[in-house]
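Final report, closing paragraph on structural work. Over the funding period we assembled a curated collection of sequence-structure pairs, and we close with a single example.
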Amino acid sequence: MMRPPLTITYAIIPAEMDRLVHQERDGRVRQRLLALKLVLEGDTIPAVAARLGVSETPLRTWTHRFNREGPKGLLDRPRSGQPPKLAVELMEDFKERVCSGAQPADGVCSLRGPDLQRILKEEYGADYSLGGTYFLLHRLGFSSLMPRPRHPEADEAAQEDFKKTFCRRR
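Its predicted structure, as stored:
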C-alpha cells in the first residue's frame, strides 16, 4: 500500500532542529528529533526508518505529533500501568521511615528487604512482593548498597585495639 509522503509542516529550520538534537538529554526524544531532522532535510519516511533502524509507523506518528505540537509533541506520553500499592501521599512518610532506620519494635539492628516488605504491609497497608519492595526503594532513590550494621552494644575502642594488636600477635 502506497502511503502519501509526509513532510514537516511545523515552522522550524534545520539549524534549529540541529540545536534541539544536541541539547536533548533524553535519548528517546533525541532519536525522534534526529529522525525528524532527516525528514526535514528531504529524506523519505521509509529511507529514514531504514537508516535509523526504526519502524515506519512510529516515525509517521512522531511526524504528525511534531507537526501538531512542535518539539514538545515528541516527549513520552504517560503510560498506563498498575497503580502503586503505596499511596502517593504516604511515599514521603515511608521514605522517612526507611531513613530513620530500625526501631526497637522491628526486632532487628538493620532493615533488610523482607523487613521493609513487612513494614509496608503492617504499617502502610501496602502488600508488595520482595522484588516490588526493592523496585519501590530504587524508585524512591535508595541504593542497594548499605554499610555493615553495628551492634548497639559494640565497644568501638576494643575493636580498634584489636585491629592494632592483631597483626603483632600473628
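Residues 27-40 form the longest helix (14 residues). The chain has a mean pLDDT of 90. We thank the funder for supporting this effort.
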